[in-house]
Amino acid sequence: MADKGELVLVTGGTGFIGVYCIFQCLAAGYRVRTTIRSLKRENDVKKMLEEGEATNIDRLSFAEADLSKDDGWKEAIEGCTYVLHVASPFPPAPPKHEDDLIIPAREGTLRVLRLARDAGVKRVVVTSSFAAIGYGHTKKIEVYDEKTWTNPDGPGPSAYIKSKAIAERAAWDFIEKEGGALELSTVLPVGVFGPVLGPDFSISIQIVQRLLNGSFPGAPNLSFGVVDVRDVADLHLRAMTDPKAKGERFLAVSPPAMTILEMSLALRERLGKAAKKAPTRILPNIVLRLIAVFDKAVSLVLPELGEIKVMSNDKATGVLGWQPRSNVDAIMATAESLIKYDLV
Ligand SMILES: *[C@@H]1O[C@H](CO)[C@@H](O)[C@H](O)[C@H]1NC(C)=O
Ligand SMILES: *[C@@H]1O[C@H](CO)[C@@H](O)[C@H](O)[C@H]1NC(C)=O
């Protein structure tokens, strides 16, 4: 058990990863404060924690703070030993100007680091993303790992991908030049699956939802890395306290990457009738290209069609002893929870 006096700030408490970080910090005995954009959402967070049967909810407090504004951040960080900076803007559709995303992501991260340094926080863990590793490359990358950096000026990266790469780079530059005694580590998840705790969730979860609810006429010819949200939170806690994590980035993935067709077939095999609408064939690339003409969100994935990326989690498993669930188990946990909450 952690020292009961230690306070952890988790930013972005309403998000999928944020809630599970709160959950695991409470279970480990920390006091937790979380920032949410509006205190009106306090009960949503509590409800999700109760759904997950969290313990020690009485040791959780809330602070109002928005990534695009200074208000509230200083007070939120004051007195914390650790900060898990999970919050990041994630738009449902591409923004009009990429700076609408890049600036709040970068400035929001730098604000947290600056205030954490000034408040004497020991370590900040920034939730980055595979988006800061896997894009904009002109040469073929054999294995994607922590040594790889997205090239925001290369071909392909969307505004979201750029925002994650630029924000993480800015964080490391800050630590090097003006971080003082503050320590940093970063966690970079791929597509995050695992059990949902209510109707509030990420884009990767929507893929499972679409496979189950029959809205995919075929499986888009895409593949991506999979990881369970519980393992992502676990990696945050390891990155927060393990001395060996200081100054390091950790890719959070349970390899190998899966195609959407593989996910669909796994759902059919394990869930039987509940997955009877899941497609058994690949949607031809040309059909997806047509859909993308009308659907901006789909257009974002076109550069990725048919590509299979090889990813490694050797660093997190080897250095921090991290042991993630299998990719199929992560997908099944999502499917079962969607069924439980009647969301398919
Ligand atoms: C299936 O889920 C998707 C994504 O979450 C949603 O947009 C769509 O309306 C749903 N379709 C049906 C038929 O329920
Ligand atoms: C999937 O995409 C790859 C790369 O573009 C292509 O070679 C392959 O034929 C596609 N598969 C199908 C079934 O369309």
TrEMBL record:
This is Nucleoside-diphosphate-sugar epimerase. One of its GO terms (molecular function) is oxidoreductase activity, acting on the CH-OH group of donors, NAD or NADP as acceptor. The chain crosses the membrane at residues 7-30. SUPFAM superfamilies: NAD(P)-binding Rossmann-fold domains. It holds the Pfam family Epimerase. InterPro entries: Epimerase_deHydtase, NAD(P)-bd_dom_sf, NAD(P)_dehydrat-like. PANTHER family: NAD DEPENDENT EPIMERASE/DEHYDRATASE, STEROL-4-ALPHA-CARBOXYLATE 3-DEHYDROGENASE, DECARBOXYLATING. Keywords: Membrane, Oxidoreductase, Transmembrane, Transmembrane helix. Residues 8-247 form the NAD-dependent epimerase/dehydratase domain. Belongs to the NAD(P)-dependent epimerase/dehydratase family. Dihydroflavonol-4-reductase subfamily.
